[in-house]
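ok so i was messing around last nite and threw this chain in just to see what happens. nothing serious, just curious
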Amino acid sequence: MQHPKTENRNMTLLAPIRAERRSCPKCRDCGATMRLFGIEPHPTIEGTDLLTFVCSHCDGVQTEIEPPAKLKPMGSLLANKAFDAETTRVLGSAFDAAWEKVEASNILPTDKRQVASMRELLAKFVIAKAEQGEKDPKRLIETALLRLRLICNGLD
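result:
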């Protein structure tokens, strides 16, 4: 049995339900506050969403990564991995050097959760390359930074 108020009515005529309140970014082009247009699961980062914002003034579009509420500690990223002591040292120094380059590049988001997600993603890229047999710190850094740039550029 249908509710009397919704009988013979389109869904579009029903009042929208209030969702969680999110802060919206400023448009990079005109500086106006943008509005949330849509949320979809990130295609490659598990448990992460892509938020798409639209500017009402200039029709600009921006996409941001919404990281999961709880990120994995770095130790857990290596928990099921088997690296010798030397490789572990190389991974740590490669990650630190890569992160210093990210910080110097001014591509860091303002949201601290997004920064933490970006750090975790960079660490995963370094580890993934090492699992493929790469041990050269320069190549570990370059490959991880390239993958991170590809993802960040895909969001603009």
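not much to say yet. Residues 1-20 have pLDDT under 50 and may be disordered.
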